Amino acid sequence: MPTQDKGSHEIVEGGSVTSPLGFKACGLYCGLKKSKFPDLGAVYCEVPAAAAGVFTTNLFQAAPVLVTRDSLSREARLQAVIVNSGNANACTGQKGVEDAYAMRGRMAEALGIPAHYVAVASTGVIGELLPMDKVLSGIDQVPGRLSREGSGDFCQAIMTTDLTRKECCVRLKVDGRTVHIGGAAKGSGMIHPNMATMLGFITTDAAIEPEHLQRLLVTTTQDTFNMITVDGDTSTNDMVVVMASGLAGNSPLKPDHPDWDAFAGAFAHVLEHLAKEIARDGEGATKLLEVRVTGAKSDEAARAIAKTVLGSSLVKTAVFGADANWGRIIAAVGRAGWPVNTETVDIRIGDIVMLEQSRPVPFDEAAAAEYLKTDMIVIRIDLHDGDGQAVGWGCDLTYEYVRINAAYRT
To answer: Is residue 343 classed exposed, middle or buried when 0-12, 13-18 and 19+ CB atoms within 10 A define those classes?
Structure first.
């Protein structure tokens, strides 16, 4: 069978975590947030699914992160995820850990599955105990709410300061069978590698063993969720969990499978789409910012430089103000912590050349300002110093970001 290329998948309009075979979802209001929008969500698989996860690098890891790590360590199989918003259950001591385990146990009991087949996630305010009577009462309602049509309510239930739902699905052929990869995520503030204040949930009906799924998730996360930043802060609760039901009926995917590259490319598409949607929806953001670095000494150096430029408050405010201030860009390149040939740097904003071989180039200021007023800005940095390259995403820094975060708890 010929190997498919990475562009062989197609987008499923309106698709999400319930598009792959075997998955249902729901979202409901249990009283954790002041608004009456859903604040408790669940994804369920009708069979034990191969599973994988990546988690925050913050040393202060929230109770649900610890519990989900424990679940995955048992068999690397999951059948359900329970998620709440409005309360992070982070920095809550032993009681917080006990509450996260109680969520896991109650969900398992409600669905009639082993406790270690349940992942737990939380997002919201740090340092407050969960009102467990409300949470457990909500979990009891989950089995009766789960459906193939429940992905929209699930996406709503995991949002905090997000303004938009973030979901995606693609399909492709593996062994001649149709395979789906769906995803949903939340994230808007405290977004900084690695990963961000974000939760991501990926589902697929492909057959793939946990070890290969874990490896694929780690490598793909590096170029997607780990390449976004909004504000330079890393959360205590970040996680991305993947579940693979295997119900598509393909032969198990692994790196030497003829369709591995096609599957990996489709998987990357879903994660990149969700990552960009998180960056686009940064708190108070008006523009999505993409930074492309080429010619670095290594891919690792390129990633670090892209992240530094994306995380620069001065670059972000210049983008907000439509000011083509390339000096802020090259200053960020120079402090990224990696050697750079200071005589060979090119910088373009959009298609407008600002710097060539580290020397200023006359450009049309009015045209640059007009470009910077659009809602998608691309900065290209060519270091002419190697073969390393990377792409990252972020957003502008606005007055609205300050307003949102100055009053987050109120």
So the answer is: exposed
SS3 content of the chain, % helix, strand, coil (to 5): 35, 30, 40
Average pLDDT of the residues in 166-185 = 97
The pLDDT of residue 408: 56
**Which amino acid, 254?**
K
Q: How many C-beta atoms lie closer than 10 Å to residue 255's C-beta?
A: 10
Question: Could you read off the pLDDT of 239-263 as tens digits, one per residue?
Answer: 999 999 999 999 999 999 999 999 9
pLDDT score, position 126: 87
Cβ contact 221:181 at 8 Å: no
Q: Is the pLDDT of residue 389 over 80?
A: yes
Q: Which structural domain range is residue 325 located in?
A: 288-406
Contacts of residue 290, defined as CB under 8 A and 6 or more positions apart, other chains included, come to: 376, 377, 378, 379, 391, 392, 393
Q: What is the CATH number of the domain that holds 383?
A: 3.10.20.340
Residue 313 neighbours by CB distance under 10 Å? 12
Do residues 191 and 285 lie in contact, with contact meaning Cβ atoms separated by under 8 Å? no
Q: Are residues 257 and 331 in the same domain?
A: no
CATH of the domain at 232: 3.60.70.12
E-assigned strand segments in 162-250 = 166-174, 177-187, 198-204, 239-244
Catalytic residue among 161, 197, 229, 308: 197
Express as a percent the part of the chain with pLDDT over 70: 92
Q: Which is nearest to 305 in space by CA: 221, 193, 188?
A: 193
Helix axis angle, 313-320 to 326-334, nearest 10°: 160
- 5 domain residue, yes or no: no
Single-letter code of the amino acid located at 1: M
- Is there a domain that residue 4 lies in? no
Q: Return phi, psi of residue 230, to 5°.
A: -115, -50
Is the entire prediction scored with pTM above 0.85?
Answer: yes
Cα end-to-end distance, the chain, whole Å: 59
Q: How far apart are CA 405 and CA 29, in angstroms?
A: 24
Q: Exposed (0-12), middle (13-18) or buried (19+): which is 114, by Cβ within 10 Å?
A: middle
Judged by average pLDDT, the poorest of 61-70, 124-133, 192-201 is 192-201
Question: 197 catalytic, yes or no?
Answer: yes
Residue 309: inside a domain: yes
Q: Are 389 and 296 in contact (CB under 8 A)?
A: yes
- Sequential DSSP letters for 242-263: EEE--TT-PPPB-TTSTTHHHH
